[in-house]
């Protein structure tokens, strides 16, 4: 019993003790817990708001219990493994320490600890207990580092009242951690680095910084990347401070004599680097995947010290080569080291001054990028993309730096075909974002590359080199648009002058050496540069960047200016007739420019149109186009009739229409835009004869016979070079017919007839090919006295007693016959190619004419003359074998009908419109396509609207026409009219008069 009573008493005592230890959970505790919870939130705004709330609470005379509890929880929170906890608790702890220990603190009765106790508290609360895992140990060690960092960053140890030994104790703790754990050394070094800058900014005590340097040397960390960064920071912030003289030569890690040692230190190859005085070995931290902050500090320090002069550029180039290129990108460098080198390059590209950028493109580095980007299976394929992306981003932020980046990529240790080799669009992107003075620099740089190719021995290699460089110049022009305008066009004028010299001139004997291309420009390259001139002008016109039409004039003026130079000789040799025509054209162009300068705004469009016609036609003359001379003569007549006579001459405008159609017939973007620009100005002057000329083009067949009828010539009028077909699309201004797209809005659905026609045409071509091949095989077999293979692949007369092989004399006798057979076969193939080219030319020409009609109906929808296009376009839709032409014709009709809502045409006689309505109905019965029926229906209703507006009981006449069409449909079983034609009429006839 006694034993039991003793146990009960003990239990009662324990219960009483527990009651004594229990405390009440207050509202303030709940508020503190909420703040601490939000400090670990992943949202930065939430963390900052919670830290601010905590600091405000502690500034409102808190109790010692609350202050102690907040301090303890914040230190423990630094050890949390949660994603954002350490960041949030660190910010809150730094501000809390400043609040509790700073110079403006308020005394809190019974608050502990003091600064000595605070340092011990951080060490105690960040210790691991029991058998902690490796991750837990890492989290607690990082918590301790961040605890000491908060103490230093809060500046409570550098205030005059703070005990000096506290500063030394914190430094010692951090140095010990740095020496023992290499993976946390960089974080500790960042604390010292920022402390040096903070002390310098606040004009603090140099002795505090001196202790940092002494700690580096004491613990053998001076010759580490982090030690170098701290050393350089001290040198910069405290230039008069006496530093240890036995670590670096002249106390300078950047000294030339320490170059190799510094390279080994930065690479963390401590086995080769000189050891510290105390002989302590430093663990390498090279396993870290991210770049050490010390690299950027070293580079920035070197650039700041040497400046932007020529000597500074030279010194930095050598420094970069020694420390980075021959170090991180050497043949023996590991992939991890090369990855860090690529990270360093990205950072330098983002922040380095313009004068230093070119030095970054060193040989080993560029070889690494090209090799790694060349194959998707390369180990650093993706990391090598990061600096390329940064190049474009830097130029986008600062367009002035484009020139050195492009130069580094395409010359020196890069490649002219850098984008192609790396399968990126780096150079293209940089050229697209280039701006300011870099544009002029790039043009002059490209000019030097053209004049002095790297390989000047192989003529073919030289031509390829010049083609590639000119492609980049074209990219520079084509990157300009309304969103990315030309700006100051001095660079563009220089570019056009460069192309003009190369395209049309040769240096004379009196030229300076630097003005003479080596080797000289070949005929092929000269033609290439002529195409480049055309491409530039085409883009400037099509992108609406040359509304004044001045750049074609600039090219012509430049040709005239250079022709008078003693150092240049015009490559174009012309007879007296051509020279006289060109001279007259220059004179009239000058007159147009003078009139434009004095003219009112209403008259300027017409003058600009003639300015464009004259200048581009003269460019074609210099390009050697024989037809261009005749066009100049026609232009002279048009110009005289339009601006020098009192009354307008309709024949002149008819002639002008023919000139415009001549330009439209050319498969070139430039001449298509020229035709459109000029036709837009003179659309109101289009005569019935001019319109008929356009309609006649649409009525021709899309074949060689149609082309022959139209141009009155044999074969195609456009010769194509097989090599040009293989060139990149940037090489030429020639426009390829695209059946998938159009400048005019197309129908939403596609008729079956046109597709069937295309298929039938292709099938017919294939059958023709097979037939020709069979004839060739038969003729060849007859000549050789062999059998023709049958469908099974066996000879028809296969037998065991075939003739013996021919002897040499028999073969020689057959040679003339075989030659003749193969010549005939070649003629057949050539004819097929001509037919194919002719079809493409006709399709292209019809497309351009439809573009012009689209402009016409959009402007002149109220002109009765526009009604004449309705029937030809419907017939074109039905007869064409090209789906694109059919859709485009429907698009023109639709634009006409939609535009006419703003103003209907008023034809002179009702009978004319009524006759046209009957013709439309007759056309509708000739094809079953729903799309074609829809086009005929819209045309019929359009004409019906015109008749209704003229009244005179026209509605009854319209009903009679529809009734007659319906009767014919019933009487003629061959009628193909679609029901849609009548259903749309019924819907329209029942609609209110105002909606018709």
TrEMBL record:
<feature type="region of interest" description="Disordered">
    <location>
        <begin position="1"/>
        <end position="26"/>
    </location>
</feature>
<comment type="similarity">
    <text>Belongs to the MYBBP1A family.</text>
</comment>
<dbReference type="InterPro" id="IPR016024">
    <property type="entry name" value="ARM-type_fold"/>
</dbReference>
<feature type="region of interest" description="Disordered">
    <location>
        <begin position="702"/>
        <end position="771"/>
    </location>
</feature>
<keyword id="KW-0539">Nucleus</keyword>
<feature type="region of interest" description="Disordered">
    <location>
        <begin position="784"/>
        <end position="807"/>
    </location>
</feature>
<feature type="compositionally biased region" description="Polar residues">
    <location>
        <begin position="704"/>
        <end position="715"/>
    </location>
</feature>
<keyword id="KW-0175">Coiled coil</keyword>
<protein>
    <submittedName>
        <fullName>DNA polymerase phi-domain-containing protein</fullName>
    </submittedName>
</protein>
<feature type="coiled-coil region">
    <location>
        <begin position="821"/>
        <end position="848"/>
    </location>
</feature>
<dbReference type="InterPro" id="IPR007015">
    <property type="entry name" value="DNA_pol_V/MYBBP1A"/>
</dbReference>
<feature type="compositionally biased region" description="Acidic residues">
    <location>
        <begin position="793"/>
        <end position="807"/>
    </location>
</feature>
<feature type="compositionally biased region" description="Acidic residues">
    <location>
        <begin position="717"/>
        <end position="771"/>
    </location>
</feature>
<dbReference type="Pfam" id="PF04931">
    <property type="entry name" value="DNA_pol_phi"/>
</dbReference>
């Amino acid at each position: 019993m006694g034993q039991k009573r003793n146990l009960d008493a003990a239990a009662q005592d324990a219960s009483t003790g527990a009651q004594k230890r229990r405390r009440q959970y207050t509202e303030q505790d709940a508020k503190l817990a909420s703040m601490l919870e939000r400090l670990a939130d992943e949202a930065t705004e939430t963390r900052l708001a919670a830290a601010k709330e905590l600091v405000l609470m502690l500034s409102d005379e808190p109790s010692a219990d609350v202050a102690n509890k907040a301090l303890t929880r914040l230190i423990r929170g630094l050890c949390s493994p949660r994603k954002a906890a350490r960041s949030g608790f660190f910010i809150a702890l730094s501000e809390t320490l400043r609040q509790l220990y700073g110079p403006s603190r308020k005394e809190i009765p019974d608050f502990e600890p003091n600064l000595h106790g605070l340092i011990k508290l951080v060490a105690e609360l960040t210790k691991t207990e029991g058998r902690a895992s490796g991750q837990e140990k890492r989290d607690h060690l990082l918590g301790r580092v961040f605890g000491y960092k908060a103490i230093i960053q809060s500046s409570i140890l550098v205030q005059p009242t703070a005990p000096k030994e506290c500063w030394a104790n914190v430094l010692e703790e951090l140095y010990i951690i740095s020496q023992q754990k290499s993976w946390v050394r960089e974080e500790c070094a960042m604390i010292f680095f920022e402390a040096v800058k903070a002390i310098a900014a606040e004009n603090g005590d140099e002795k505090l910084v001196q202790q940092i340097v002494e700690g580096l040397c004491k613990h053998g960390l001076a010759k580490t990347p982090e030690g170098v960064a701290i050393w350089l920071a001290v040198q910069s912030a405290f230039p008069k401070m006496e530093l240890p003289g036995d670590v670096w030569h002249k106390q300078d890690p950047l000294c030339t004599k320490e170059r190799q040692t510094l390279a080994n230190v930065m690479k963390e190859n401590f086995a080769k680097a000189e050891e510290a005085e105390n002989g302590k070995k430093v663990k390498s931290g090279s396993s870290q995947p991210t770049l050490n902050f010390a690299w950027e500090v070293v580079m920035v320090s070197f650039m700041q010290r040497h400046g932007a002069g020529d000597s500074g550029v030279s010194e930095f180039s050598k420094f970069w080569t020694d420390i980075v290129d021959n170090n991180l990108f050497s043949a023996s460098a590991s992939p991890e080291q090369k990855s860090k080198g690529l990270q360093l390059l990205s950072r330098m590209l983002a922040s380095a001054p313009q004068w230093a950028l070119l030095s970054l493109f060193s040989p080993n580095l560029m070889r690494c990028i090209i090799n790694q980007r060349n194959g998707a299976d390369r180990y650093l394929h993706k990391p090598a993309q990061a600096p390329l992306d940064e190049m474009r981003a830097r130029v986008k932020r600062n367009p002035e730096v484009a020139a050195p980046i492009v130069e580094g990529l395409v010359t020196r240790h890069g490649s002219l075909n850098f984008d192609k080799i790396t399968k990126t669009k780096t150079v293209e992107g940089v050229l697209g974002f280039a701006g300011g003075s870099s544009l002029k620099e790039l043009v002059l740089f490209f000019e030097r590359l053209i004049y002095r190719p790297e390989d000047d021995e192989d003529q073919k290699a030289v031509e390829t080199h010049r083609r590639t460089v000119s492609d980049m110049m074209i990219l520079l022009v084509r990157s300009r648009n309304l969103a990315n305008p030309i700006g100051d066009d001095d660079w563009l004028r220089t570019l056009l002058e460069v192309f003009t010299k190369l395209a049309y001139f040769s240096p004379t004997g009196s030229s300076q050496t630097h003005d003479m291309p080596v080797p000289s420009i070949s005929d092929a390259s000269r033609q290439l540069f002529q195409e480049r001139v055309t491409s530039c002008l085409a883009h400037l016109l099509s992108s609406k960047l040359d509304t004044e039409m001045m750049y074609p004039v600039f090219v012509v003026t430049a040709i005239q200016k250079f022709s008078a130079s003693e150092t240049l000789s015009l490559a174009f040799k012309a007879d007296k007739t051509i020279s006289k025509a060109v001279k007259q054209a220059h004179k009239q162009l000058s007159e147009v420019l003078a009139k434009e300068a004095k003219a009112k705004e209403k008259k300027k469009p017409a003058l600009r149109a003639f300015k464009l016609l004259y200048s581009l036609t003269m460019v074609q003359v210099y390009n050697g186009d024989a037809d261009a001379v005749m066009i100049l003569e026609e232009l002279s007549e048009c110009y005289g009739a339009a601006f020098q006579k009192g009354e307008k001459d309709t024949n002149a405008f008819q002639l002008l229409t023919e000139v415009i159609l001549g330009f439209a017939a050319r498969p070139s973007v430039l001449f298509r835009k020229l035709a459109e620009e000029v036709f837009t100005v003179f659309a109101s002057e289009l005569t019935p004869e001019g319109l008929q000329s356009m309609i006649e083009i649409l009525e021709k067949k899309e074949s060689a016979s149609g082309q022959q009828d139209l141009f009155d010539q044999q074969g195609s009028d456009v010769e194509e070079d097989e090599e040009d077909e293989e060139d990149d699309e940037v090489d030429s201004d020639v426009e390829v017919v695209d059946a998938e797209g159009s400048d005019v809005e197309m129908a939403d659905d596609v008729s079956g007839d046109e597709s069937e026609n295309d298929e039938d045409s292709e099938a017919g071509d294939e059958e023709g090919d097979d037939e020709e091949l069979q004839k060739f095989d038969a003729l060849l077999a007859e000549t050789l006295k062999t059998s023709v293979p049958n469908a099974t692949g066996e000879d028809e007369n296969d037998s065991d007693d075939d003739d013996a092989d021919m002897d040499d004399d028999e073969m020689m006798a057959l040679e003339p016959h075989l030659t003749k057979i193969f010549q005939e076969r070649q003629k057949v193939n050539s004819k097929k190619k001509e037919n194919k080219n002719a079809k493409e030319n006709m399709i292209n020409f019809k497309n351009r004419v439809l573009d012009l009609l689209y402009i016409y109906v959009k402007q002149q929808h109220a002109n009765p003359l526009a009604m004449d296009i309705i029937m030809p376009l419907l017939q074109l839709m039905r007869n064409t074998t090209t789906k694109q032409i059919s859709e485009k014709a429907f698009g023109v009709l639709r634009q006409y009908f939609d535009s006419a809502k703003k103003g209907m045409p008023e034809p002179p006689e009702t009978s004319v419109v009524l006759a046209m309505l009957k013709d439309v109905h007759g056309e509708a019965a000739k094809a079953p396509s729903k799309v074609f029926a829809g086009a005929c229906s819209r045309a019929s209703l359009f004409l019906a609207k015109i008749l209704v507006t003229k009244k005179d009981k026209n509605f009854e006449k319209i009903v009679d026409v529809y009734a007659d069409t319906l009767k014919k449909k019933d009487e003629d079983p061959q009628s193909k009219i679609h029901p849609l034609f009548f259903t749309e009429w019924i819907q329209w006839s029942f609609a209110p008069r105002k909606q018709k």
